[in-house]
Amino acid sequence: MAEILYIRLGSRVQDEISWLVFNSIEQEIIASGILASAEQLHDLTAKAEQRLVNVFVPGSDVLLKRVSLPTKSQRSMRAAVPYMLEDELAQDVDDLFFSYADMASDDDENNCFVAIVERVQMQMWLTWLANAKIKVKTLQSEVLAMPYKKGQWSAIALHSSSHAGNQIVVRQGEWQGCTLDSEAWKFSLEHIFLNQVHSNEQQENNAVTLNAYSELPNLQSCSSNITVINSEEELPLALFAQHCQRRPFNLLQGEFNVKEQRSIGATKWLWAASFAMCALLLNVGYKSAQLWQLSAQQTQVEERIITRYKKAFPATKRVRISTIKSQLNKKIAQLGGTSDSRGFLAMLSKVQPAFAKVPALKPESLKFDGKRQELRLQAIANDYQHFELFKAALTRANLTVKQGAQKNQGKQVSGSFSISRKQSKVSSKERS
Question: For the domain 335-425, what is the CATH code?
Fold first, then answer.
């Protein structure tokens, strides 16, 4: 996102809160303002919905320390630092939160950089933001958002009606600085800063350059070893916005780590993608169920076909569903074929009406002589009359019938027939 919402919180709920919407690409201010207290943070909720939110906290609440440790293990460092600094801290280390920076030292002496904040203060800042439904990406000390040049200091005044005087933000090094009220600033100019300049062997001629980005009070009492350069005056949050990303540091670590929040557009897209995926899965599941049912039905049909084929042709030992069609065609061809008017099936169709007219006569066996085109039938009936009726029915069907011997078998009579088609007479013209 090009536009970022920057918020500078106070130490207490009644302190003023300044905010600024900054375009990081065009490097220009979109909007800015001041809230009377943390209770008015909900006024920024709408502005925070479509933008990234970076929050600055007072340097007076964040202690920056540099430590030299013999180990390179990050885990070992972080376990040892709180107890190494215990004697220098006014509070119990269990009440403090330690946040670490991944950076290299300018002097190669220090290898661990830690920012220390009261755990209660961290929880209070995050509670204010949560109550206003503002999702914050980074939380950092305003000191580390000040411009930094090696060997030079930078300072800017924060004007606020909630303080007796201005607050001054001072950055003295890559990992050194503080936020002071007017009285502490004056005292530091006269005593602390002077001693720091004299004790700093790295500064040429024991002098330091102070870049002032606003009008600073009490500079007349400043030592001659501090050279003040008045830069173009800027809005404090605009200055922070321009320099905070050059060496970014985030206090939100460990127990206060905030998971990356998806944008509203991405969330809507994920919802749409989820619905589409759900619909796809349901469709695939439905199609799979249909396919399974059809596969089961196909298996049942194939089993029926094989069973009936074996019943029709009991001599068959092995039947494959893939070859059963060709096997049936061979059997039909052996019987004369479906299109052959002189085959077995054609003869059987001629005989069938006679069986229908004389149902009392039952066939025992059928044999077909393909060469002679003759059907030989062995049948049984209750008396001889049925044989005569059957013969008459065949004769009326234009078939030639030769009736074989008949004999009694208990209460039934058995007999045979030789059935063939009548030969058509050749016309006199064809014979000539």
Answer: 3.30.1360.100
Residue pair 58/124 in contact by the 8 Å Cβ criterion? no
Helices (H), 313-343: 324-334
3 state SS of 281: helix
Note the CATH architecture for domain 3-261.
2-Layer Sandwich (3.30)
CA atoms within 13 A on the CB side of 191: 6
Question: Using one digit for the tens of pLDDT, what is the confidence trace for 357-375?
Answer: 989 888 888 888 877 888 8
Which of 182-191, 251-260, 336-345, 384-393 ranks highest by mean pLDDT?
Answer: 384-393
Choose among 234, 164, 211, 202: nearest CA to 15.
Answer: 164
Report which residue type is found at 130: A
Average pLDDT, the chain: 84
DSSP 371-393: TTTEEEEEEEESSHHHHHHHHHH
Spans of all domains in the chain:
3-261, 262-331, 335-425
